[in-house]
Amino acid sequence: MKFPYRCPDPADAAAIDWASFDAPWVAPMAACPQDPEHHGEGDVWTHTKMVCEALVGLPAWRALAPGQRELVFAAALLHDIAKPVCTTIEDGKIRQPGHSPRGASMVRAMLWREGVDPRRREAIAALIRYHQLPFFLIDAPDPTHRLAALSQTARCDHLALLTRADALGRICRDLQRLLDNIDLFTELAAEHGCLQTPYQFPSDHSRFLYFRDPHRDPHHHAFDDTRCEVVVMSGLPGSGKDHWIRHNLDLPEISLDGLREALDVAPTDPQGAVIQAARERAREHLRRGQGFVWNATNLGRDMRKRIIDLCAAYGARVRIVYLEVPRRRLLQQNRARADVVPEQVLDRMARIWEPPDHTEAHQVDWILDDSP
């Protein structure tokens, strides 16, 4: 399914039909104030419309292929969707801390429910997640590391377009500084060869070590001394992880669902004993240099990091296998499980869900089933 909101035709880019945007997120944005120092234009929806109009006026946006124009326009339309829920007033100043990552999560869940192709959905979510970075990346202590990381999921040229429109679609005193920093971001990405493609490393092990230690030289070809491979599963309940393991792996399995059953711990109970037992079994395998599969939902980056850190400490190679099926299929498969997860719980899980990317592991495989 394509993005469900109409992208303007570049031949008539000025004619954005704002009356057609009657989604439930419009009213909260229209009612949400912004700091007048950085947003003299007023509320978030006013700013959003100005950003979209600035974007479609950019020759670089008009020159994109139709599918790419649609992605960047979608990100512009939704880039500040989380500001209403992130707004605080401190000492009379309006702040919206964390609205970029929160917005990416909100848009991911929304577009998943609407059936948007996962690859397109994640491209939009990544642009929203990082849409502020070109404003200040050049002043960061280690801009190369942050650039290399964001380029694994977001196209830097698309990101620069979005951020330029974000700057032009506002009233502020430091506009020229913002535009200059965006130019410097673009030059840095071009210099490192990651303006349109991810930052390249000599090997997957070099990449894995660099994102665990930014002080490493990203150009150094690290000696691969890994002793075994651990497969970390990731995916919403009902996405088919058990089925995929049975048909694709011949490894010892550490299943959190299996341990819960063995320990008589309900999914709604405290999970400390289950996690402790799983980690101890993992250590037993790792001490022997024995690969295994860690079978759990592992929906968030922090959740995956705990097991990846343990594996890395024992010199294991880490492969993440991420499974996703359309929501309709997921609900069907979930109802066929022995332990059905309530639909409202699935929707709550979707709000904290972060599909894995190549900054996390040696290898990341996405197994997508697009059938209805």
Please give a structural write-up.
The protein is an alpha/beta fold and 372 residues long. It has 2 domains: 10-191, Hypothetical protein af1432 (Orthogonal Bundle), CATH 1.10.3210; 228-368, Rossmann fold, CATH 3.40.50.300. Helices cover 48% and strands 9% of the residues. It has helices at residues 26-30, 44-56, 59-62, 66-78, 83-86, 99-113, 118-129, 133-136, 143-150, 156-168, 175-191, 204-212, 241-248, 256-263, 272-287, 301-313, 327-335, 343-351; strands spanning 88-90, 93-95, 228-234, 253-255, 292-295, 316-324, 363-368. Strands 4-5-3-6-7 form a 5-stranded parallel beta sheet, with helices on both faces. Strands 1-2 form a two-stranded antiparallel sheet. Helix 10 (156-168) packs antiparallel against helix 11 and helix 14 (256-263) packs across helix 15. The mean pLDDT is 93.
For the largest beta-sheet, the strand count, sense and barrel status come to:
5 strands, parallel
- Structural class determined from secondary elements: alpha/beta
Sum up the overall morphology in one term: globular
Task: Tell me the quaternary state.
Answer: single chain
CATH class descriptor of the largest domain: Mainly Alpha
Mean pLDDT comes to: 93
The N- and C-terminal alpha carbons lie at a distance of 11 Å
Number of H/I helices: 18
The overall strand count is: 7
Which percent range fits the helix content?
Answer: 40-55%
Beta-strand percentage?
Answer: 5-15%
